[in-house]
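[Automated response] Your request has been received and processed.

Submitted sequence:
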Amino acid sequence: MNLGSSSSRRTIEENDYFDTKEQEAIIEKFREQNDQTKTLCKRFIVLGGVIFGGIKGYFLMNQIMHPWSIEPHKSYEGQIPSLIIIMWEFLSMTLYLYAPVYIISKDFQKKRKVNLIPYIGTIFFTMTWILFVGFKFNPELIWFFLGNLAYHIVFKYAEYMSSDSERQIRELRASMYKFNKP
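Generated structure:
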């Protein structure tokens, strides 16, 4: 079998090309699928932020009204001032609610400095954690901090994937060629 012979090579036929209308239909289908996925991701992120933010708000109010009565706070009684626990819960609640506000508000998205909010919050929390607890890893660290961090990593990843998909669709649209089938 001779692989290099011209008889074994496939020739490109006119039917192998997409018509301009077919190209537009395919790109439009990709765009619609991307929009549906983007909307679904936004809804999950907003819902998750509101639910987790609400839970953190409940724990915040509980610490204000009935200090040291719930488990994540109880283990720090006498070691960390109640005001610091309240600040951690408030910061955590605010960071969970950051993503829904960011997604819903178009004005909020235009301000580049707003993207620094989770990082500033993370730095503040880390500094106060080291100051009061040291370098010990406690399960409460997950409650106060790592949950927020994981949530924001998922949020930023979804935002990146959405913008990357939009970029790919733009590139696909730019690579269209004009062709009309006979």
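Summary generated for your ticket: The chain is about 70% helix and 0% strand. The longest helix spans residues 20-65.
If you did not submit this request, please reply to this message.
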